[in-house]
Design a protein that fits this description.
It is a single chain. The protein folds into four domains: about 400 residues, 3-Layer(aba) Sandwich (Rossmann fold); about 220 residues, Beta-galactosidase, Chain A, domain 5, CATH 2.70.98.10; about 210 residues, GH92 mannosidase domain (GH92 mannosidase fold, 2-Layer Sandwich); about 240 residues, alpha-1,2-mannosidase (Glutathione S-transferase Yfyf (Class Pi), Chain A, domain 2). Helix content is about 35%, strand content about 20%. It contains 36 helices and 39 strands. The strands form nine sheets. Strands 1, 2, 3, 4, 5, 6, 7 and 8 form an eight-stranded mixed sheet that branches. Strands 14-15-16-17-24-21-20-19 form an eight-stranded antiparallel sheet. Strands 9-11-12-18-23-22 form a six-stranded antiparallel sheet, with no helix packed on it. A hairpin with an 8-residue loop joins strand 20 and strand 21. Helix 4 packs across helix 6, helix 21 crosses helix 35 and helix 29 packs antiparallel against helix 30. The radius of gyration is 34 Å and the shape is globular. The N terminus is likely disordered.
């Protein structure tokens, strides 16, 4: 406890030392007068270059308070003389003196403010005489605000002295406000939410001025307004000291609050998700446009005069090294009165002539007349300090800013996407008809995570690791803690290797039900990189950010008292442990993992290890009833920060994961790095639309599609060998910069779901896609068989089919980089042709009911498939195996395995053996006789999680063959129509999800357009109950992503994607662009299309197109064009020919 006290005292002293360097005037922050300029030496200009253009933005100079009404309100608070103390009466007198000067001047430029701009202009002209002695044009633009106009006029007077006599064309037009002082609606909405609290109270201050503080109308407002008046005195030259009303601590407290408010509202704070930078884009475009004029010649300078916030937002967009995205900027240094940004343009007249191109131009940035560096742009020179210099190629700057704009857009997508979608009972139309049990939930999490990271850092409302029970449900009213979860998101499975951390106040409660505490969704903030919630009964705010293996939690206490933090495993077998390590200042533990499905309840051969490390020393601690706890004495405003991590290997892995991912105690830095991971992910698909709600829904789906498969290896590449072995595996990839590199292992492939859309989506946008699939090959190496549904690091034989083979085949057919193709084919072939022995089969290895399938060409009803979690389902298995055989055949063809190809292609027709004489899927006995089922809409045993009407359509590789088996194109089309007319279609069931696209095969793509748009609009809602069933590891969401872009892989292993209906004005997938002119919810029908400028009538796309450099442009309308895409040659190819 003494150590903690010493640490707190040291931090306090360091804080005081830092702020001791700040004068009272500086702590006026944005009111601080422009600092007295000190002449310094600038970095020499590169040889041969001379300045030819100046781009300038200046904040107005010092001014009076922004309105007379503000003064009047303050004075009114002192009108009751009987309630004033002696200090209060003296303050009232000073206010009257100020008011005599201020009346009628509210918001106007002061004489000091005018002089500031005159002096800045003179220094600019002296420093760059080439610009201001030429005959080239100089233009000045001002905000329509009077103080900005006066600042512009003063600046121009400074240029127009006796030597230069330069006339400047001046503009103050309301039309220019769209860029010179633009504030977007989303920025205005954000700023209304920014209300940072102060640490100190107002009681001392108000009591010093008023005998009865309760009679003061708004004490907090009065305190901050008097601080504004105190700061304003330096702007107007009155020798009155209002600062003496405040203690040094109060001044510092208000200063910090004002800095934080401005940083959150206009700076690079991670909390604003780039909204400030996006609001600066129009100003940047003006700067760029004027620079383009200057490159043509005859323009010497563009001068702009506006306000503090647009300038600060412009700086935030540029990202200079004197601003921070991790901690609060100091406004007296960034945007004091008359703050400015100057961009000086140079060229080499010996090597270039006007007009210039950007490659021939270099620029230097000066902030408040001091050289600044841009964060990630390579300079042409080296600075005096030996670091990167200050001169940049203009084309490099343009590219850099465009990238920052794209990143700001991606951050905006993170801000508006709804992480709660899928956490409540579904409210979609199809769910009310077909869903049952856990299928009625999306089963998702509002988790903080790194895309495809190991651990999902989620709030917890349900304890334990129970099958079909997610850790969080939106309808729950009490929070139990914050979990490091390995939940198979979106399914009816269970968590494993998880642990929970819970902060409590005043009383130590160990059981989850006892420590559950009320919370409100209005107090929740949830984004992919950050979660926060206020817990009123615990008197604290909890915040969480995290990466793949490690996370940080910050608890801020709203009252003094005893704070407890408890940690427990969620093991349901009474196994594992928690403990205290005072040497490492942490609580730690182990949660052994058990299998489910095949081998249910058996130990999986590995555990979830974890630690919760505290920033401050433990004061008190203990372990009781399987729960570890630590206790601290806290004061109001105190923070307790913890770092936590997990490993599936050992405690060494836990602490190394912390060291690698979060080596410090910087919460915002950790958050910023998680944001960077998400920006990279979301920027791989960029969509543009006037419908912001559609953009939010799209990126919400992309978020949910980035949970699984999960990273399984530690940061050092170690992971437990697949299928219960005690061996630890590590795959070396050589060295980089002297540091060893290891291949990341992945786990939890919900294969029956994700091979349909999620993995094909990854093939298009995810560089690590084949690295994930290589993990399947590694599982074959380690376990002897390619797994069917690998989860919990085990063979499970859950669900049906052999879709690990299908996914590997797709990767090989579509390029196969970063994957061992020969080993992958060896694994696929073994599954397709060999039978495991009885023990291996019991363990979940090999295809289920493979002996029957090979013998009969289908799985007869006689074979109940007992060694499978999903028994029976014979018809569905046959249909899925036929597709898997086709997929492996394509891999065999790509790798030159001709004999295998022919055998597998013959088996790919086995689907015909379960389509009965009536043209619907039907059960069949070993003797060949049909069950003759006529019930198309009720669940039956031989169909998986659905009905005959759903599964009959699952022949994705032979649609034309299915069409013939049904009785021809007309019957096929009529049955498709019935699926949608009679509401037989169930979007929540994966085998249905290609059905809307089958109209393309009969030359009626307009029906696909209609059906897909209806599903997008009705079966995906941006609310907690907005998913039409389980998200199933991201499959449902991936369907949305692909379909909203305008296409879908009916047969994923083929190189073809059927066109649906584009929903965005523009979408970019890598170098490929899709434009949809006139698109809207009503205008969902394609009227015509062009590809790279040429007419395009095919109703499908190719993988080569989507991964290449091209422009596909649609014209959309409200009525179907029944000619487009309708001819036989426009329809998808027959894959069986």
């Amino acid at each position: 406890m003494r150590k903690q006290a010493k640490l707190i005292l040291l931090l306090f002293c360091l804080t005081l030392t830092a702020f001791a360097q700040k004068s009272s005037e500086q702590m006026g922050a944005i009111y601080y007068v422009y600092p007295e300029y000190k002449v310094g030496r600038f970095t020499p200009v590169p040889d041969g270059f001379v300045p030819f253009y100046m781009s300038h933005y200046g904040r107005h100079g010092s001014r009076w308070l922004t309105s007379d009404a503000r003064y009047e309100w303050i004075i009114e608070q002192f009108s009751d003389e009987d309630n004033l103390t002696k200090a209060g009466k003296e303050t009232a007198k000073m206010l009257q003196i100020v008011w005599q000067q201020a009346r009628g001047n509210g918001g106007k430029l002061s004489p000091i403010g005018a002089r500031q701009h005159e002096e800045i202009a003179r220094r600019m002209a002296l420093r760059f005489p080439e610009l201001f002695s030429s005959e080239n044009e100089i233009e000045a633009f001002s905000s329509v605000s009077d103080r900005c106009v006066k600042s512009m006029q003063a600046f121009c007077r400074g240029l127009d002295d006796d030597q230069r006599k330069r006339k400047v064309e001046q503009h103050a037009d309301s039309a220019d406000m769209t860029w010179i002082a633009y504030k977007s609606p989303e920025l205005e909405a954000w700023q209304k939410t920014v209300h940072p609290p102060r640490r100190l109270g107002k009681e001392r201050f108000i009591s010093a001025l008023f005998k009865d503080p309760s009679r003061v109308q708004d004490a907090e407002k009065l305190m901050t307004e008097l601080h504004a008046v105190a700061s304003d005195m330096q702007d107007v030259g009155l020798k009155l000291d209002f600062y003496q009303l405040f203690t040094k601590e109060e001044l510092r407290d208000i200063y910090e609050q004002n800095n934080l408010r401005m940083w959150l509202s206009n700076g690079q704070a991670p909390d604003n998700y780039g909204v400030t930078q996006r609001s600066a884009v129009s100003l940047w475009h003006n700067i760029k446009a004027q620079a383009e004029r200057a490159l043509q010649g005859n323009l010497a300078a563009t001068l702009r005069f506006g306000h503090d916030t647009p300038l600060y937002r412009l700086l935030a967009l540029l990202g200079p090294d004197n601003l921070s995205d991790e901690q609060t900027d100091e406004m007296d240094e960034v945007i004091p009165m008359a703050a400015n940004l100057q961009i000086v343009f140079y060229y080499n007249p010996d090597k270039a002539r006007m007009p210039l191109n950007p490659q021939q131009v270099i620029v230097k940035f000066m902030h408040n007349e001091r050289e600044i560096r841009l964060f990630k742009v390579r300079s042409l020179d080296v600075g005096p300090d030996g670091k990167t210099g200050y001169y940049y190629r203009w084309d490099h700057v343009l590219a850099y800013v465009e990238k920052r704009i794209a990143n700001a857009e991606a951050q905006g997508h993170m801000a508006i996407l709804n992480t709660f979608v899928g956490t409540d009972y579904a409210v979609t139309p199809a769910m009310s008809r077909y869903g049952k049990g856990s299928e009625k939930h999306g089963q998702t999490l509002p988790a903080v995570l790194e895309p495809n990271g190991m651990t999902f850092w989620t709030p917890q409302t349900r304890d334990g690791e129970q099958k079909c029970v997610a850790p969080y449900y939106y309808r729950d009213e009490k929070l139990q803690g914050f979990r490091g979860s390995h939940w198979l998101v979106g399914g009816c499975t269970q968590d494993y290797g998880s642990f929970t951390v819970m902060p409590l106040m005043d009383s130590l409660r160990l059981k989850p039900a006892d420590r559950a505490t009320r919370f409100s969704h209005t107090d929740e903030v949830s984004h992919p990189d950050y979660y926060a919630v206020s817990l009123p009964d615990e008197h604290l705010k909890a915040e969480m950010t995290g990466m793949s293996h490690a996370a940080m939690l910050r608890f801020t206490y709203q009252k003094a008292g005893k704070a407890y933090i408890v940690v427990n495993t969620n093991n349901g077998y009474g196994e594992g442990f928690v403990a205290v390590d005072t040497a490492r200042n942490c609580l730690y533990g182990c949660n052994p993992v058990h299998r489910i499905y095949q081998g249910w309840g058996e130990k999986a051969g590995f555990s979830g290890w974890f630690a919760v490390v505290f920033q401050v020393p433990l004061q008190d601690y203990g372990v009781k009833d399987g729960v570890a706890w630590a206790a601290f004495d806290v004061s109001k405003g105190d923070e307790i920060m913890v770092k936590t991590a997990c490993s599936f290997v050992d405690m060494q892995g836990v602490f190394n994961n912390i060291l690698q991912e979060i080596p410090h105690w910087e919460f915002n830095d950790t958050r910023a790095r998680t944001v960077d991971r998400w920006k990279a992910k979301l920027n791989r698909v960029r969509v543009f639309s006037k419908d912001k709600a559609a953009i939010a829904k799209f990126y919400g789906a992309l978020y949910r599609a980035a949970f699984l498969p999960r990273a399984f290896s530690d940061k050092d590449g170690r992971y437990p060998s697949f299928a219960g072995s005690s061996r630890i595996v590590q795959h070396s990839m050589g060295n980089l910069g002297g540091k060893p590199l290891y291949r990341r292992a992945y786990m939890d492939f919900s294969m029956w779901d994700i091979y349909r859309a999620l993995l094909p989506l990854n093939q298009l946008i995810e560089p690590a896609a084949n690295g994930m699939l290589q993990s399947l090959v590694d599982m074959y190496d380690e376990g002897g068989w390619l797994p069917v549904f690998p989860c919990w690091n085990s063979y499970t034989s859950a669900m049906i089919g052999d879709h690990a083979s299908a996914a590997l085949a797709e990767a090989i057919v579509k390029g196969g980089r970063n994957i061992d193709k020969e080993k992958a084919y060896e694994a696929m072939r073994k599954n397709a042709f060999e039978l495991p022995d009885a023990e291996a089969y019991r363990e979940g290895k090999g295809r289920r009911a493979m002996q029957s399938y090979l013998k009969y060409g289908y799985i007869p009803l006689n074979d109940t498939v007992p060694e499978a979690f999903h028994s029976h389902e014979q018809v569905s298995r046959t249909l899925e195996y036929a597709y898997d055989d086709y997929a492996v055949a394509q891999a065999a063809k790509a790798l030159g395995k001709t004999e295998d190809y022919q055998l597998l292609m013959a088996r790919a027709r086995n689907w015909r053996n379960v389509i009965g004489p009536a043209g619907w899927a039907d059960g069949r006995w070993a003797n060949g006789k049909w069950l003759k089922n006529r019930d198309l809409t009720t669940r039956v045993k031989f169909i998986t999680e659905g009905t005959v009407a759903h599964y009959t359509w699952y022949v994705p590789h032979d649609v034309y063959g299915l069409m013939g088996a049904m009785g021809g194109k007309k019957v096929f089309t009529d049955r498709l129509d019935r699926m949608f007319r009679d509401s037989l279609y169930w979007h929540g069931n994966e085998p249905c999800q290609q059905i809307p696209y089958l109209y393309a095969y009969v030359g009626q793509p307009w029906k696909t357009q209609q059906a897909v748009r209806a599903i997008l609009d009705n079966e995906y809602l941006d609310v907690p109950g907005g998913l039409s069933g389980n998200d199933d590891a991201g499959q449902m969401s991936a369907w949305y992503v692909l379909s909203a872009l305008g296409f879908y892989p009916v047969c994923p292993v083929s190189p073809y994607y059927v066109i649906g209906t584009p929903t965005f004005d523009e979408a970019r997938i890598g170098r490929f662009t899709i434009k949809a002119n006139g698109v809207s919810p009503k205008n969902c029908y394609i009227q015509s299309a062009t590809y790279n400028g040429k007419p395009y009538t095919r109703n499908y796309l190719t993988h080569e197109m989507l991964t290449g450099d091209g422009l596909l442009e649609f014209t959309m309308g409200a009525s179907p064009n029944m000619d487009w895409g309708s001819k036989p040659e426009d329809c998808p190819p027959d894959l069986m020919k």
